[in-house]
Design goal:
Length: 300
């Protein structure tokens, strides 16, 4: 009875609101790996002597801010050429040991901001490879983290989803995950690999990072309470896209924005309660700006 009364009171309160209610996920935004990488970049004494080797984080606002303090940037598809600066900053996504050696052999001093949880993926993949296994990396083809993992392996390839699984001509297989892989996707691909390769000895090492799990779980808890979800993050951010995909897979409209300027009031017709989450490379101030804009948006 108490629960029914509370629900009726909440409904009455919401009915009187002139603007949408915004419910914020209890885990969102910067993870410790991204926060540490950004702090290392900002406290650089000689920004003009440093080239960031790719995007430090997949967030255009952050990338522009770093360029504004004088840090140079080598695009993630421009790594054929060694940077001209004496210092090279390895991003949170990491690089292969092979690439690290190439840079050091060219006389570059490295500032390493690789996330420790990405290092964990590299180590697990190398151990599987050293034991004679063909390594399958569950992740997004072409992503900088995945490229770095595969470059150090004697035998390996990326598997994007269950539909991409095939019968592999190897007796021993190893499986790891890109650190930001959704747990549900990893489980589906792992099961598909085993079903398609009953002849193989398969070892799966779960390398999904805890911040990814926390943000996915927070969205799952939020979805029953909202009419739609806004996901804030860079357009190239894998974990941000996956948060939006999780929402849509469960039948709730999701809108991926990079800033408050991207919001469109027409998206929220018929919505009284909107959820808000953000990827691990999203600035706190950007999240607050989006939250403020949503809370001030009149009901359609």
């Amino acid at each position: 009875m108490i629960a029914v009364i509370c629900a009726l009171v909440l409904f009455a309160l919401l009915s009187r609101r002139d603007s949408m209610q915004v419910l914020v996920a209890d885990a969102l935004g910067f993870c410790f790996g991204v926060r540490d990488a950004l702090a290392a970049a900002i406290r650089t004494d000689r920004p003009d002597a440093v080239t960031i080797y790719g995007e430090l984080v997949h967030n255009e606002t952050v990338v522009a801010r770093l360029a504004g303090i004088g840090l140079k940037n080598a695009g993630e598809n421009e790594r054929d050429h060694v940077p001209d600066t004496p210092l090279v900053m390895i991003t949170a996504h990491g690089v292969s040991d092979r690439e690290r050696t190439r840079l050091e052999s060219a006389g570059k001093l490295l500032i390493d901001t690789t996330c420790p949880l990405v290092v964990k993926v590299h180590r697990a993949a190398r151990q599987l490879s050293l034991k004679g296994r063909h390594v399958l990396v569950i992740g997004r083809p072409g992503h900088v983290e995945v490229r770095g993992i595969l470059e150090d392996l004697a035998s390996g390839e990326v598997v994007e989803n269950a539909a991409a699984v095939k019968t592999y001509p190897y007796e021993r297989l190893g499986i790891v995950c890109q650190s930001t892989t959704p747990p549900r996707l990893a489980a589906e691909v792992n099961a598909a690999i085993r079903a398609a390769n009953p002849q193989a000895d398969i070892r799966f090492v779960d390398t999904i990072c805890q911040p990814t799990r926390d943000r996915q779980d927070a969205v799952v808890r939020l979805l029953p309470l909202v009419d739609a979800l806004v996901v804030v993050g860079g357009k190239n951010s894998n974990n941000t896209r996956e948060l939006a995909a999780l929402c849509r897979d469960r039948g709730v409209p999701a809108f991926h924005v990079q800033s408050a300027a991207d919001l469109d009031a027409s998206w929220f017709r018929g919505c009284r309660v909107v959820g808000l989450t953000a990827g691990t490379s999203t600035l706190d101030e950007t999240i607050q700006e989006v939250r403020q804009a949503l809370s001030e948006m009149p009901l359609p």
